[in-house]
Amino acid sequence: MLPTDSFFFQWFFLPLLIFLARVSDVSMDTMRILFISRGKRLIAPLLGFVQVLIWLLAIRQIFLNLSNPVCYIAYAAGFAMGTWVGILLEEKLAIGIQVLRVITRKDAAKLIGFLQSHGYGVTSVDGRGITGKVSIIYTIVKRQDIPNVINIIMGFNPKAFYTIEDVRAISEEVNFSRRNSLKRGLFMPAIKRRGHGRTS
Predict the structure, then answer these.
(1) Second CATH level (architecture) for the domain 97-193
(2) Exposed (0-12), middle (13-18) or buried (19+): which is 172, by Cβ within 10 Å?
(3) pLDDT for position 191
(4) 69-93 and 43-64 are packed helices; what angle lies between their axes, rounded to 10 degrees?
């Protein structure tokens, strides 16, 4: 084990530990906030406990080595890297469900039928916008499936307007398991061959 008063420990190993600790606790903080927004009452406090414990260990080393400027740089760099890692983890996990709202001037019957045939529950209503009659479509989608569903919508109507909103809770369980996997390479050519890719 390295002596704590050695040059290598003070100016390389210790700053590295502080950097890694900061990356861990900041990325955990990002995930904790995500789980809080999703109503995860068990995992969010556990992450908070581990996060603060790591932070205390890191800040203790800072105070014990106030004369070492490399530790300050490692602390700040760890915060920046932890923020980036947290965002990356949040995107990769894609936790939660979302409401996708689509507004289109084009007849949406074929789009609705396609989504329903792949297990997506769809609610549609007629509306009127500044340019005239429109169709408004609502569907609840797993966040990880959002890109696939958007590709479907753009395949049927590239000019469709859509918005996405997070859902904190739903009143009843949605059966996502019956939904078929929709990969871009599988359905986009079929849509274009039917002529739905060119709309106004």
Answers:
(1) 2-Layer Sandwich (3.30)
(2) exposed
(3) 41
(4) 160
